Amino acid sequence: MADTKALTTRAADFSAWYNEVIMRAELADYSPVRGCMVIRPNGYAIWEEMQRALDRMFKDTGHQNAYFPLFIPQSFLSREAEHVEGFAPETAVVTHGGGKELEEPLVVRPTSETIIYSMYAKWIQSYRDLPVLINQWANVVRWELRTRLFLRTTEFLWQEGHTAHATEAEAEAETRQMLGVYRTFMEDWMAMPVLTGLKTDSERFAGALRTYACEALMQDDRALQAGTSHNLGQNFARAFEVTFQTAEGTLDYVWSTSWGVSTRLIGGLIMTHSDDNGLVCPPRLAQYQVVIVPIHKTDEEKTAVLDTAQRTRAVLAAAGIRTHVDAREGIKPGAKYYEWEGRGVPLRLEIGPRDVAAESAMLARRTGGKKEPVPLAGIAERLHAEMNRMQIELLEAARARREAASIRGATREQLIERMAGPGGFVYGGFCGAASCETEIKEQTKATIRVLPDPEFRSPVAPTRCLWCGQPSVAEAVWAKAY
RNA sequence: CGGGGUGUGGCGCAGUCCGGUAGCGCGCCUGCUUUGGGAGCAGGAGGUCCCGGGUUCGAAUCCCGGCGCCCCGACCA
Question: Is this complex's ipTM strictly greater than 0.85?
Answer without folding.
Answer: yes
